């Protein structure tokens, strides 16, 4: 990607500069990496707070992969419960609490409210995910709620919109989910985890919502294959 942009910068007729390239690379790093890391850390936090949920996720992976090898990307598609864990994490802890702003093109009425043209709208997905009128036990971490359900996170279900929807939805949905699911599967399959004391879930609000305090956990190799060097 950097090579392509550099070649464009050197091509006559293009106005892209090295400053433009740096900004675009920073955007990709922030949007594609920070959000995935935040999601994985929140998923691990909730799993460590809910040992039965962690054990169930480990059992699902072990039954498909065994303890003889590590998880491969092609294995992840068969981990239904793991995907439910990721969905539930995105519901309770969306890495980006406010979607990118939208602006109304013309006046309209929504549920009896008149929305003037040029109104700037921010969708609060953090609040939607914790709305007790929408979710049963909204503040509890229960991946089971998604088992056997067609509810998705890709913008088709408006009560679960961590990536947004429509033309302004996140273009990296597939990449973000693939990275997060594979990394989480490897973390809980390869290691048993212990923490000292209780795991807090205090958030630090900003453009993204990471943990306020870093998660400290001790891993112990659990596979029968040799520890990787």
Would you mind describing this structure in some detail?
- The chain has a domain at 17-95 and 141-221: Cytochrome P450 (Cytochrome p450).
- By secondary structure, the chain is mainly alpha-helical.
- α3 (51-65) packs antiparallel against α4.
- Helix content is 39%, strand content 8%.
CATH architectural name of the domain at 17-95 and 141-221: Orthogonal Bundle
Radius of gyration: 20 Å
Helical stretch count? 6
Q: For the residues shown, what is the average pLDDT?
A: 90
- Fold-level CATH name of the domain at 17-95 and 141-221: Cytochrome p450
CATH superfamily of the domain at 17-95 and 141-221: Cytochrome P450
Number of strands: 6
Main pleated-sheet profile = 2 strands, antiparallel
Q: Strand content of the residues, in percent? A: 5-15%
Could you name the ranges where pLDDT drops below 50 across 5 or more consecutive residues? none
Structural class: mainly alpha
CATH class of the domain at 17-95 and 141-221: Mainly Alpha
Shape descriptor reads globular
In N-to-C order, the SSE pattern is HHHHEEEEHHEE
Q: Helix coverage percent of residues?
A: 25-40%
What's the arrangement of strands in the largest beta sheet? 1-4
Name the quaternary structure: single chain
Tell me the distance between the termini: 31 Å
